[in-house]
Amino acid sequence: MAFRLDLEDDIQLAIINIGRDSFDGHIYGKDEEDSIIDNKTSLRLIQTCPNSNARAGELVTPHGIVATPVFLPVGSQATVKAVTPDDLKELGITMVMANTYHLYLRPGIAVIEKMGGLHQFMAWDRAIITDSGGYQIFSLARLRKLSDEGVTFRSHIDGSQHLITPELAIQFQESLGADIIMVLDECPSHTDTLERVEKAMDRTHQWAERCRGVQTHGDQALFAIVQGGLFPELRRKSASFLVSLGFSGYAIGGLSLGESKALTQAIVEETVALLPENRPRHLMGVGSPEDIVESVARGIDMFDSALPTQIARKGALFTRQGRHNILRSAYSQREDPFDPDCACYTCRNFSAAYLHHLFKCKELLAYRLATIHNLHFMNSLMKAIRDAITGGTFSSFRDSFLASYQPTNDEVRLVQKKKWLDAQNRSDTIQD
Amino acid sequence: MAFRLDLEDDIQLAIINIGRDSFDGHIYGKDEEDSIIDNKTSLRLIQTCPNSNARAGELVTPHGIVATPVFLPVGSQATVKAVTPDDLKELGITMVMANTYHLYLRPGIAVIEKMGGLHQFMAWDRAIITDSGGYQIFSLARLRKLSDEGVTFRSHIDGSQHLITPELAIQFQESLGADIIMVLDECPSHTDTLERVEKAMDRTHQWAERCRGVQTHGDQALFAIVQGGLFPELRRKSASFLVSLGFSGYAIGGLSLGESKALTQAIVEETVALLPENRPRHLMGVGSPEDIVESVARGIDMFDSALPTQIARKGALFTRQGRHNILRSAYSQREDPFDPDCACYTCRNFSAAYLHHLFKCKELLAYRLATIHNLHFMNSLMKAIRDAITGGTFSSFRDSFLASYQPTNDEVRLVQKKKWLDAQNRSDTIQD
């Protein structure tokens, strides 16, 4: 029923399909055990870069085809902040990420299930991935108590106490009905000791196995999450173990939490080397253009991050040269659009001076227009990356992009780190 | 060059045109002195109601035709809060109101002039009316010092000191370039004595004359503002005086500031009786559905109010039966749209439960969707009013609307009153 794909082959073009329901005789990933991962979401690899690990493909989901590498806007609370589903479609967005932790607390999983599931609830008929909530429990929730059973925490909204187990995480995500769902994982801090990180990893592995065991919906792809902090040997161990269980895709979690960019990429490289070529690879929480380009070069297919939308609401807008803040007085009388080369709705219709004015006045329209611009930038970047890969020019694209794009200083990274550490300190996680 | 229109005639259908540039041989308003008010904005009366003073018409402006009676969404800072020009067009909005006071402070009149004027700045190619800023100086600004010359005030944003004179108010509005502009007026409180209100009225009259005298742009219509508080004799005096000067249109200011609805309507009736039939009449700051229906019956053509958009952002949404707050828990699991009979974008696409969730989470999308709903309601109401007038059924429409529409209690009115009085107390207006 399935063919083993020799991963050593120099694949230039391959159609890979991992779902039984959509099995169509093409090269098939892994072996018979795949039949357990019975879902309709699969990755078709279209082209790999001869000079790097970059690859272009298509993620086939029950809600449409998602060209990869792809950036997924984050809509934690069943809305990408400040924009409508129509805005997202006009931007060409094909998939968004929602969050089980947030939706569990508000409006509650049962409400969304009653409303016909997450797609219908948020009026989004394209693909959705839900994060299990693991990361949010460790970054947002309070007074966590960890045991092998699961994690008890207090809501960051009203302090109410909750328990989420791997089994519940899957049950919740099946009720939400996203196209791709994720295992519950334990996220240690990047400053934790090897011993502590290893313990978290082991628990993540047990939980992944339990998640896999209780999955009942055949039309949802389940992604495992590789942990192991900044320790290459743990990352290798984690990747190998999870791959041995067999998942529809593999996410890399626990990165971009304050460590250096070089270290992030080193760990990505180390991890990807052990992931099967025929499965989508998702780097969680990475969203800066330079990190995305570098991670694509290392073989990542999917990215999600609140960064582009979050900084948009602070007036920080992307250009091919780097980020600029529209609140700078230089924009106050600029009749041109913010980026005259940009084809987004905002730059097509409004002057930089107008956008500057909206931000100065804290007008709600500011946030929408800025969000549209940044999402358009991200989507255009991903398209340029895909075109470069399929056109065989990714290496030169990467060089020229990185040569002209001025990354933001470490400010944001450090703010993120501080937030994470604050959450850690605030929460007094109790290990059982 | 112009025909005198006998206002005693039982006008059932008349085309009235007050602009020299668009003079086309139809019945012409007032007499030769009209040539001074040389502008392209005019009112064509199409139909009057035989049983009330309601009338339907068309306001012809350099930026399109505006069917009247019309409700003008307020975009004080060159944006109707939370929506784009495209949203407004999709809603069928033909004219918005912006505010000279706000735009003078931010981004500054010179900036907008440099950007090609207000239409281009806010990317709105339909009609605009600008308020002179009089009302805002008296409700928002601080430490006002009034003299015959003008009003000195401190910005509510940064405390900086400014002087606005009638001449400057016109100069600013000519730079902004709206289709209709307004005279600078002095707004007394509705609790002031007759003596105080009369003094403010007299100054408003002097200022109106000065505004009229310095107007240089032939393509802008200048509206006078009738004042006189809650004293019918002053209102009559004000209307007569301003009409004797001759303006392109007449606004009624200083109402709906906390007095009873019955008193508001009594003053409207008293005032309209003295306004020429062939000029547009604008009731300033009135925006509740029941007040609009009643004021249309008394002969008002134009309304502006921040109410529908302001309450939308608090979750208060209109229906034909009255206002309901989407934050009520009754909506938390309602799969139907907020108003199943409503054809707006929001109700066509989202469940009440989703909108409730967005509000609960204070998601930015909430404010946009609610604003769209309320503006759609207002625009549909105005269309229904116009259709009823032209169809000869306004009286029964009015009766059935008021029978089924449950006005909100006085809460909002009292909040508004308190705000006004607070501003008065805060500001220590000094009379010269």
Notes on the protein architecture:
The structure is a homodimer of 432-residue chains. Residues 1-38 of chain A have low confidence and may be disordered. Among the domains of chain A are: 70-258 and 411-431, Queuine tRNA-ribosyltransferase-like (TIM Barrel), CATH 3.20.20.105; 311-392, no CATH class. The longest helix of chain A has 27 residues, at 364-390. Chain A has 16 helices and 17 strands. The termini of chain A are far apart. With 432 residues, chain A is an alpha/beta fold. Chain A has a six-stranded parallel sheet with strand order 4-14-13-12-11-10. In chain A, strands 9-8-7-17 form a four-stranded mixed sheet. A three-stranded antiparallel sheet of chain A has the order 1-2-3. Helices cover 39% and strands 18% of the residues of chain A. Chain A binds chain B through residues 77-79, 81-85, 106-107, 111, 114-116, 121-123, 332-333, 335, 349-351, 353-354, 356-358, 360-361, 363-365, 367-369, and chain B through 77-79, 81-85, 106-107, 111, 114-116, 121-123, 332-333, 335, 349-351, 353-354, 356-358, 360-361, 363-365, 367-369.
